[in-house]
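Entry 14. Ran structure prediction on the chain below.
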Amino acid sequence: MTARANPDTPAEAGPLPARFERVVDGKQTGLFVLANRGCVEIRVTNYGGRIVSWLAPDRDGNLADIVLGYDNLQDYIDSKEPYFGATIGRYANRIARGRFTLDGIEYNIPPNNGPNSLHGGPKGFHAVVWDARQPDPRTLELTLLSPDGDQGFPGNLRVKMVYALTDDNALTITYEAVTDKPTIVNLTNHSFFNLHGAGGGDIGGHLLEIRASHCTPTDAAHIPTGEIAPVAGTPFDFRRLAPIGERKGLNFVLDRPATPAVAPGDDGLFLAARAIGPETGRVLEVRTDQPGLQLYCADNLDDSFRGKHGKTYGRRSALCLETQLFPDSPNHAHFPSPILRPGETYRHTCVYKTAISPP
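Output, structure tokens:
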């Protein structure tokens, strides 16, 4: 299929690099373009390691930008929603009361979500400038040194993240991290997707499948109770493709196949989720090697958010599919461990692939 311009979707041009060039905290920011031989183009800024735009065709070949965000750096810095498209760390999701104990030592992370810490604290990886290197038109390497004590976390943590776009329209995100002191790590990407196009309205009509038989229920503060509960008979059962409707987000315990169907280069990744925008035919597939997936349906957005091209990002105007460990894992010994020790390497791979569904 050859994508073609649609004059009703000006997002096809992508944000201008000049609007992302400045110095923040003494480091240079920019906008980097990834493009394949097909028609997909993804733009990333090293401020927060963010996916800024993602141009993908619909079933008629029309291009639209399928991720929410802004067309200039200052709007990202000023936004009430700090996570549009961002890399999240050191710890994705919530830590209860911002406290955890590791090897008998209690650590405290600044609260930024009521009494809890969220997504690594107020100046997590989403709010810092990464070092960037683009070795070829399809690949971007981002690196970061998070010093000992950063946001309260122990250890000098060295992180490398690579965005790689393939010719079959898959974006592979790989994360690696090492430390010089025992610490905890849980990284993810927080892109807000709307398969009808950013600003394309409510995603309640999107069809969603999540390959998870269980979830981690939470209390009123969105902290896991510690239970691993079946989704059967609950609104969180997405094991079969179904409309999202008004169903809320939650962390899902993914069904990892005993023997994953390995595609070339996948290294044992498995299909975690699939979303379809029925009106456009765009499909988003998510593959990973992680045990959990957080679904978020942008319930905290409202009509005051104006994004790229002045479009409104209202309540439930996007969905996020964040592959990761479980929320508050440092405080639940039976959850998959987030502990990283010297001599070990944290690794995480997530693949977001766009495709087209038949009419």
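The first strand starts at residue 23 and ends at 24. Will compare against last week's run tomorrow.
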